[in-house]
Amino acid sequence: MKKGILYFLFLSCIQVSFAQNNLLWQGYFSYNEIKSLAQSPTAVFAASENALFTKDLSTNFIKTTNTVDGLSGQTISVIYHSVKSNKTIIGYENGLIIVINDADGTVINVVDILNKELPAAIKKINHFLEFNGIIYISCDFGIVQFNLATMQFGDSYFIGDNGAEIKINQTALFDGFIYAVTVNGIRRANITNQNLIDYRQWTTIAAGSWSHIASFGQDLYAINSAANVSRFNAGSSSFVGIIQLPQPVLDSRATASSFIVTTSNTVSIYNSQMALIRQIDASQIAGISPAFMAATIINQTVFIGTKENGLITTSLSFSTTFDNITPSGPARNNIFGITTSSKELWAVYGDYASNYNPYPLDSYGISKFDEKGWFEIPYEKLFGAKSLAKITVNPNNEKQVYASSFFSGLLKIENEEPAILYNQTNSGLESLTFGGPTYIDIRINGTAFDKAGNLWVTNSLVNNGLKVLKTNGQWQSFATSTIVKDVLSSNFNTIAIDKNGTKWLASSQNGVIAFNESTNKFKNITEGTDTGNLPFRNVRAVAVDTRNQLWIGTTKGLRILSNVNSYQSDDQMTTNPIIIVEDDLPQELLFEQFITDITVDGANNKWIGTADSGLFLVSPNGQETKYHFTVNNSPLPSNTINDISINSITGEVFIATNKGLVSFKGTATAANDNLNNVIVYPNPVRPEYEGAVKITGLIDRANIKITDIGGNLVYETTSEGGTIEWDTTAFGKYKVASGVYMIFVSAQDGVETKVKKVMIIR
Questions:
Q1: Is residue 712 domain-shared with residue 743, that is, in the same domain?
Q2: Shared domain check, 147 and 229
Q3: Confidence at residue 18, expressed as pLDDT on a 0 to 100 scale
Q4: Do 95 and 35 share a structural domain?
Q5: Please, are residues 512 and 504 in contact by the beta-carbon 8 Å criterion?
Q6: What's the pLDDT at 635?
Q7: What's the confidence (pLDDT) of residue 273?
Q8: What is the pLDDT of residue 725?
Q9: Are strands 606-610 and 615-618 parallel, antiparallel or unpaired?
Q10: Which pLDDT score is estimated for 23?
């Protein structure tokens, strides 16, 4: 017999401390894919992939909760709200449980099932049943008790044949018994039995594969995998079929007066006599074609969670009116490409595999975020452009945006309206040819504007892989086949353009390719000590910093070209690793890391995204790792970083992952041209404030000195970019006392100065 008694201490429940009152992070999540619903008499709770929202029906206030608030970036499988304890419990596919105390917002991670010595594939949480303060957790391996008051686990029930693991889809209480529906029959046991860890105490009363069970009124109902709804016959201890549904059931639940069954196309609502009183078909909802996931009823309102269209409401009485109450957000959480302008952020969702295969092709729209919220350009307006992987804003005209399709060409958007799709018929863009004469496949990826306003474009798997759309509307092509060894297997990624107008192209097979039209020469940096010294030829990211260094991210590490001017002087340019010292041992920065993106902020720091190790922020020379953000120490929803973009005005760093978009509000603002707009905030600094004082509006390399009113120096630094922070200590030793502090700012040459004051109140 397999015993699974879990007497875990409260210490096994780890509170997510980094998420509480964290002003540096912001979450931008999609709430469209509803995984599960829960309810109280006055609120509905909707869980999406890795976030949730709650609507208070008395105030109509909607509250969102995501990784910034302490949730995990893993996929949610079920949600439950305990009215008695005022706690919301979230179950995940990997076995994690999160408990939110709705009274004070405390978020607790419960990792006992996640860490349990069982195969990872059978830890999914499927259902929560509450009885006498105990939550019975249905998992893919069995049933686990959890005490909501003490936050401690009790027994685990392995009730498969001979005590083996068995997938429990749902449990229900009826007439003194606990019933469990499984993939191998319905089993029950007396709920008062003190020895339920013994599988022999559980009796199989129905064969077959069952998905749902619930007590409703005076009866017990179960649904099998063939979508047959059955009523329990207590006299014969068997289930008798009463309703045959045309589709598999995704969710069923009972309220005080209704039994609700949800399939992908219908929500069927039955009264206490199991008479159908309302059926809602997906076809009744105009403008969309929703796939239903779950439904519930509060008072006389039906709430329907959908797979892609969020949470929809309608009246229980027959109505043709449907309202969407989903919080504003991006269309999806798997955002592949982003870009920022001074006031906007754009996002696209098309992607390709690590080998640049865009199949299966994606048909998603484009999202924009500004001070008014999220705006969506639906796919139907995109002229059929599929797999949009990158997006670029014209720096000279922020109303003009270009989205790169890794299958259909280049989409131009003006004033939020798609204007034209450039393809092989109306531009210099080319389709790959090895698919045959009728196969059209135009793989556009990296794009970048030069100082003159021309748009440079990479076109993969063709002879002329570099294109430019000039300001006069004319296209010009350049033959990358002169340097690319195998055109039919070498894909391009990002482009960086330096102060000399040299274009640096990241390629999958040929390292970095450099080109300048003034010389009309292509040059190559690839692996090998004599051919560029890259760790690997597969380059995913290139970025030019403010010191004219080229940072190169490959699938196996990082390299630096010390000066981009070497394109003009050297026949063979050579890169170098950054060597750092850790634990008294020299080692290579980001050794063997799969680097997905590199972005330079206003202080010349480098934000480096990786495929599976999170996000790094390193100093201008790479010798100091200022931050290494992962899912374990930050609100990042995933360690897979797809793209990074920085708003140079606000310093907000946007991080797109495969499980959601978040931002970090650091000091990464661009330097100003003068000191006319120096601002100190907060001012005054009040006793309850625990953060740093920010001084913004600085010029690059400005000298900042802070003194007390008596002229005693307490802090001094030199700015890199437009913002610095002071932690209100005297050179990091102790907190300064209450009083007025003088801030003296001067340019490097001393010609321009500015004096500010800040009040500290302890």
A1: yes
A2: no
A3: 38
A4: yes
A5: yes
A6: 95
A7: 94
A8: 87
A9: antiparallel
A10: 55
Spatial distance between the Cα atoms of 689 and 686, rounded to a whole number of angstroms: 6
Among 33, 25, 105, which Cα is nearest to 76's?
33
Q: Measure the N-to-C terminal CA separation of the chain; round to a whole number of Å.
A: 63
- The SS3 assignment for 493 reads strand
CA-derived radius of gyration, the chain: 30
What single letter denotes the amino acid at residue 7? Y
Residue among 466, 547, 450, 542 at smallest CA distance from 502: 450
CA dihedral 669, 670, 671, 677 (to 10 degrees): -60
Cis peptide upstream of residue 418 (ω within 30 degrees of 0): no
Q: Which residue has the tokens 């096994």?
A: 12
Domain count for the chain: 5
What is the share, in percent, of the chain residues with pLDDT greater than 90?
A: 86
Q: How far apart are CA 355 and CA 443, in angstroms?
A: 13
Q: 367: which residues sit within 8 A by CB, 6+ positions away?
A: 330, 331, 346, 347, 348, 349, 374, 375, 376, 377
From 203, 225, 244, the end of a domain falls on 244
pLDDT digits (tens, 9 = 90+) for 99-112: 999 998 899 999 99
Bond before 119 cis per omega within 30 degrees: no
Rounded distance, CA 193 to CA 189, Å?
Answer: 8
Element (H, E) at 755: strand 753-760
DSSP designation for 685: B
Structure tokens belonging to residue 376:
């969506």
Structural domain harbouring 375 = 330-446
- Residue-wise pLDDT for 498-532, tens only, equals 999 999 999 999 999 999 999 999 999 999 999 99
What's phi and psi for 109, nearest 5 deg?
-90, 130
**667: in domain:** no
pLDDT less than 50: residues of the chain: 1-21
